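Support request, please re-run this one:
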Amino acid sequence: MNSHERILGYIPFLLTVSFQLIVPILPVYLYSVLGASKQEVGVIIALAAIASALTRIPSSIFVMRGNALKVFVFGIGLNTVALLGYALSVSPWMLAFFRILHGASFALNYTLMLSFASLFVRPDRAYKSITNYTASLAMGLWVGPAIGVFLSSFLDLRMLMLSATLISLAPVFLGSVFLKSRPSFWEDIYYSKMQVDVFKALLKKPLLLPTALYLFYSIVVGALLAYAPLKAKISFGISDQLIIFIFTGYYFITFLLRTILSRATLQMGNTKLLRLAMASCALGVFVAGLAPTLWLFVMGTYLVAIAHGLTFPLTAMITAHVVPPNFRIIGNSIYLTSWDIGSIFGPIVVASILYVAPLPIALAFTSVFAGIALLLTGKIAQVIG
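Re-run finished. Output below.
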């Protein structure tokens, strides 16, 4: 592993730690500190995904014409601005503005990091590099909440937001170092108008199959991450610290599974693992939504964590397999936009159902989308193998 690969391992880890520190408690912060209603919580949480969905593909086309590294550093800086805005917000809709900025940073950062993982290495190392990247990402997913558990024992929620801002300065520094080192791409990635037919081909099978599966899966995860903390707070009356602790365990499971994948030799399009992930996702959100006890709630949440650990690396490897290197950034942006759209609809679906049904039923209903994703794994098996 060269120095560029190491830096690309540190940046997603630290970047993810910075905002995951507050993600599990952000719905409670909106509800308890800023006075948002349950419906407003769902909409505001979804704003990041809306902004990301609207900016991901247009920005990736711009990036493919050059300035990829400069845009990457700008996106990392935008993450810091958004986190500072959370700490300074005095109303739900002031935070909503910074939530939109955060979504734009997600669109830039995670499209480019996933693409860099396969474009700064030899083609024969691409799959290994992608799984290493997803493992580094997953480590940040649980270390962030773990730090949040520690800090929340003596800081209030607003100061917790400020702590996340300070941590976010580390990836800004590393991104600047990465930019100054000027690493070279293994293969040309820049967009050419002469290849427009190839671009159109990206919108057809087989890319749309993993993209559609990732969409339905992300609806479930988006709903769970927006409303499971509220379910835990309202139904079981547990502390903010315990909520963060539960989600630390959630992301630790995600990390363990991705670490196993990064060390294993997997056949492309491992549909058996995808089937397992979607079945676990469907059962998990159903149990978490209707759980009458805290232990059942945690069990259901952790079943979804299994899906969270498996789905991204497997579908990302399929995407890298079917998209040529010179279209990797735009291909990844199409694929990752499905996460944005799912993260939009997940909270909004639950928020809409809340007008006619209680939160447990609204959350459990999203298991339907995981069931649709489970059906799509059969289609992927037929096309990818």
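The chain has a mean pLDDT of 85. Residues 288 and 296 are 7 Å apart (CA to CA).
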